[in-house]
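Sequence only, no structure available. Ideas?
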Amino acid sequence: MLKIPSIVFGEEELTIDDIYDVAKKRKHCQVSSSQTFTDKISKGSQFLDDLLAKDGVIYGVTTGYGDSCTRAVPLEQAYELPIHLSRFHGCGLGNILEPEITRSVLAVRLASLCRGASGVSMDLINLLSTLLDHDILPVIPEEGSVGASGDLTPLSYVAAVLIGEREVLYQGERRPTMDVFNALNIKPLVMRPKEALAIMNGTAVMTGLAVFAYQRADYLAKLASRLTAMTSIAIMGNPEHFDATLFAAKPHPGQNLIAERVRNDLGGSQAKMPLVRLQDRYSIRCAPHVIGVLQDMLPIFKQIIETELNSANDNPIIDADEGRVIHGGHFYGGHIAFVMDSMKNIVANIADLIDRQMALLVDVKFNNGLPSNLSGALGDRMPLNHGLKAVQIGVSAWTAEALKNTMPASVFSRSTECHNQDKVSMGTIAARDCLRNLDLTDQVVSGHLIAVCQALRLRHRSGECLIDDLTPVVRNFQENLQNCIPFINEDEPLESILRYLMDKIRDQSWPLYDVQN
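Reply:
I predicted one. C-alpha cells follow.
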C-alpha cells in the first residue's frame, strides 16, 4: 500500500493545494516537531500564564467578550469562561458542512494557530491535528456567522468538540463526541484561558470554503474552454476567432491562455467543414474574453486566500517576545468576502456563456443544420421526440438563479452585538453564495456536456465531422462522454445522467490541459 504523504503545519507557508489535499484525504496533517516551533508555541501560552499570575487584564480571559469587555471576570473563573464562550455560541442553523469542507476548516484553523501569535498550548494544536488524523469531524451548521469577529458560531462547534461536547461525524455516523473519544482513548482538552477565543475568533470557515471555491473555479475555467472548442466544432464555427495574432493585440494573459487552450483543442478539426458565418455569435467568438476574466483573476484570488490562511487572525494577538497583548481586528474577513463576491460574479457570467452556447446548439435557426433540440430521432419518429428541449429550459433556469445570486454579500454589513460588531464582513455568507453559484454552474455545464456530446455524434452520423477528425485530446474527451451519456434517440429522463456528470465535475475526474495550461 502506498504511503500517503504529509503536510507539515508550523514550518513552511501553506498553499491552497496543501489545504485541499488534506481536506480530500490525499495527504496527512502533521504538526512540526521542531524545537523551534514547539518553543514558539509554548512561549505564547507561558506568557499568558505569567500575565495572569500578575492579575493582568486580558481581553476574553479576565473580561467578558465583545461589548461585555468592560465586565471584569474574577481570576478564579478564567478557566471556566472559555467553556461559556463555546456554549452560548452553539446556535448555528442551516445545512451541516460537508465532510471535506469541515476538514478544510480544521486545517485552516490549525494553520492559523501554528503561527504562534494566539497564546494556545501544544495540547490544543495536537488535538486539532488528531481530529484530522482520525477523521473525527465536528458537526458544524453552516449559518450564523457575520464574518467578524470571525466565524464565532460555526467555530464554536470545533471548540466544543475539543472539550468533548456536542457531536461529530465519524466513520459515516453522527455520534456524541465523548463516545468517539472514549472509543479511541482520546482525552478532551482542558481549555486554557483564551483558547476558545483563539479557536473561534478567526476566519477559518470562510477561508476553508474559499479553498474549495478556488479549486472548483480553476477547473471550471478549463472545462469551459474545452466546451467552447467543442461547441465551435459542432456549429461549424470560424476557428479564426481564437487566432494567436488576434489575441496578441489584446494581451491579457489569462484571456490569451483561454484562447490558446481553445485553439489547441480545435487544431485542424474544422478544416473539412464549410465556413458558414464569417463572425460567430458572441458566446463563441467572445468566450476567451468571458472565461479569461476568471483566468486573469485566479492568481489574485489565490494570493489573497493564501495570505489569509497563513495569517494569525484572532484577537487579541499575543507577542510573547515583546511581552505584549495587542488588541485589534484581524478576525475581519473583508479580503475573503471580496474574493468570494468577485468570484461568484465571474462564475455566473460563465454559466451565462455556457447557457448561450447550448441555446445555439439546440435551435435550428442558429445551429447550422443540426436537428431541432438535437434529437437523434429519424423518419416518422421525428415529430414525436423533443430531444434536449427540457434540458435547455433547465439550463436557463439554473443560469438565471446564478445570475440572481451575484448581489455582493459584503455590502450587507449589519451592526450586531450591542453595536460592538458594528461593521462586519459577511465573508462566510459570500463564500457560501460562491459555492452555490459553482453548484448551479456545474448544473449548467452538465446540461451542455450532454448537448455538445450529442451534437458531435450527430455531425459524425451525417459525415460532416468524424470523431477521427477531432484532435486527440478532444476525441478522448468526447469518447469519455459517450461512455456515460446515451445517444438521445428516443426521449428519456436525463436527471440521473445530469447528476452523474455533476459528480464528475465536482471530483475533477477529467484531466484538462497540462500544468502550464
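The chain has two domains: 6-202, 209-506.
Hope that gets you unstuck.
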